[in-house]
Automatic annotation (TrEMBL):
Residues 278-375 form the Stomatal closure-related actin-binding protein Ig domain. Transmembrane segments: none annotated. The lineage of its organism: Eukaryota, Viridiplantae, Streptophyta, Embryophyta, Tracheophyta. Keywords: Coiled coil. This is Stomatal closure-related actin-binding protein 1. It comes from the Eukaryota. Residues 378-485 form the Stomatal closure-related actin-binding protein PH domain. Residues 100-267 form the Stomatal closure-related actin-binding protein coiled-coil domain. Residues 54-96 form the Stomatal closure-related actin-binding protein actin-binding domain. Pfam families: SCAB-ABD (PF16711), SCAB-Ig (PF16709), SCAB-PH (PF17684), SCAB_CC (PF16712). The keyword Lyase does not apply. Residues 109-148, 174-259 form a coiled coil.
Length: 491
């Protein structure tokens, strides 16, 4: 007979369904993705790489919760307990049958012993010994039967104890399942409330989105209407008319500026003493040139004198020598804007000083033109080489000067004459002297031993090229200027 121990009850308790709250977690933003696998174990499901909408997530989680509610059953557990109770009842019945059979065996053994005792009194000799041996065997069988009955009694007690334990375990399991089922219902109700709140939030979000979308459409319509109105106001013909008006206003302003400067010069001349024999002629602005002219017929001609031009700094009395500016004509360059120019006329051992009436003015529109060119990667200017390495250049063919963000290049067609990166040995400034064409010419020393005098198409392009090259070189931590300008900058 198989012995039933108490470990069976402990195993049944370990196989009970774990509490739902230990594995089911409801977060504030979404429901967990899980499913119930074998032995009522909750299995985590890998996240689907596909991004679902909020409605789909809510519908899927609701279906999973309903499925979980249905599957949270004690059907398997109850079946196991019922099988255990049936086994215990069967063991009890077998014990009763064995008890009845044992009683019958005792009665038979007693009758047999009594018969043998009666037989022993009637026989003698060898048969008597056999009878006594049979009586001893019957007594031994009675002892064994008594021991077996003790074991049966002990097994019966264990079976009763097991049945009691199984009954109590069944009641505890039912109570536990009822509690877990109530807890699961409460969790499901909370989940439904959360789903309802999410749906309400989605509806509110959709309502707000529709309202904001309508508002955005209205604002976009207003912007389109405003753009159409601006487009109608800025028709090409009107833009051309406005540009022509601006050009005419600029010309008038330039004429008035020249007239004002002329009046200022005449006023300054009238205030000067009669010892001032020379004056500056020309517009004191970038893009023009200044010429030293005699005021009296008795003074020496400029061809008989020597000259030296200076820049006056903001500090009174301090002036900077302009290297190479030793002619009667000087064309201001971008470095001279905002400064006063002064020229010394040396004749017969006397030095006569001539000074501009005010600082050199910038060229109108040059700043905007340079800013537009800065946005390009490489800027090209058509130039003519006037001098190369200090010698006149006979060819008057057109060359192209490239002013880039990292280097400058001079080429003719596909032939590159020189190409140099910005460096401390490079110099770029306006030409010192040269007559009326000086305002369109620039001096460029690409490196030591290679220099050019380049003539641009207009004064505007010459000044723009100088300003662009100095700006790009400054971005490379290099101050690009003339020889005297480097001394003034301390480089």
């Amino acid at each position: 007979m198989t012995r039933v121990g108490r470990d069976f009850g402990d195993t049944m308790q370990k196989e009970a369904v774990p509490p739902v709250s230990a594995d089911v977690v409801f977060t504030s933003s979404r429901f967990p993705n899980y499913k119930i696998g074998a032995n009522n174990q909750i299995v985590e499901v890998k996240e689907d790489p596909k991004v679902l909408s909020m409605k789909e997530v809510v519908a899927r989680e609701t279906a999973q919760l309903l499925e979980q509610q249905k599957r949270l059953s004690v059907r398997d557990l109850a079946t196991k307990f019922e099988k255990g109770l049936a086994a215990a009842a069967k063991l009890s019945d077998e014990a009763k049958l064995r008890e009845a059979a044992s009683l019958e065996k005792h009665v038979l053994l007693k009758k047999l012993r009594d018969a043998l005792e009666a037989l022993r009194g009637r026989v003698a000799g060898k048969n008597k010994d056999d009878v006594e041996e049979a009586i001893a065997m019957v007594e031994a069988l009675a002892v064994q039967l008594t021991q077996r009955e003790g074991e049966l009694i002990q097994e019966k007690a264990e079976v009763k104890k097991l049945a009691t334990f199984l009954k109590q375990a069944s009641e505890d399991a039912k109570k536990l399942v009822d509690e877990e089922r109530a807890f699961a219902r409460a969790e499901i109700e909370k989940a439904r409330e959360a789903v309802q709140r999410v749906e309400e939030a989605l509806q509110e979000h959709e309502r707000i989105s529709r309202a904001s979308g309508q508002q955005d459409i209205d604002e976009l319509m207003n912007e389109v209407q405003e753009a159409r109105r601006i487009k109608m106001l800025h028709q090409p013909s009107k833009v051309m008319d406005m540009e022509q008006e601006l050009h005419a206003l600029r010309l008038q302003l330039s004429e008035k500026s020249k007239h004002s400067l002329q009046l200022q010069k005449e006023l300054a001349i009238s205030k000067r003493s009669e010892m001032n024999m020379y004056e500056l002629d020309g517009t004191e602005a970038l893009g023009s040139y200044l010429r030293i002219c005699p005021c009296l017929e008795t003074v020496p001609e400029p061809s008989e004198c020597s000259f030296q031009w200076y820049r006056l700094t903001s500090e009174a009395g301090k002036k900077e020598l302009i290297s190479g500016a030793t002619k009667s004509v000087y064309a201001p360059e971008p470095f001279d804007v905002g400064r006063i120019l002064q020229a010394e006329v040396i004749t017969d051992g006397h030095i006569i000083t001539v000074t501009t009436t005010g600082p050199i003015d910038p060229a109108p529109g040059l700043g905007n033109y340079v800013e537009a060119l800065v946005r390009r990667h490489d800027i090209e200017f058509n130039v003519v080489i006037v001098q190369m390495n200090g010698l006149d250049h006979s060819s008057q063919s057109i060359h192209v000067l490239h002013v880039g963000k990292m280097r400058m290049k001079l080429r003719k067609g596909k032939t590159t004459m020189t190409k140099e990166y910005y460096s401390t040995s490079m110099q770029l400034c306006g030409v010192r002297g040269g007559g009326s064409a000086a305002a369109q010419a620039a001096f460029w020393q690409a490196k030591v031993g290679i220099s050019f005098v380049l003539a641009f198409e207009t004064e505007r392009e010459r000044n723009a090229a100088i300003m662009l090259a100095r700006r790009f070189a400054f971005d490379c931590n290099i101050n690009l200027a003339g020889p005297e300008d480097r001394a003034a900058l301390g480089t």
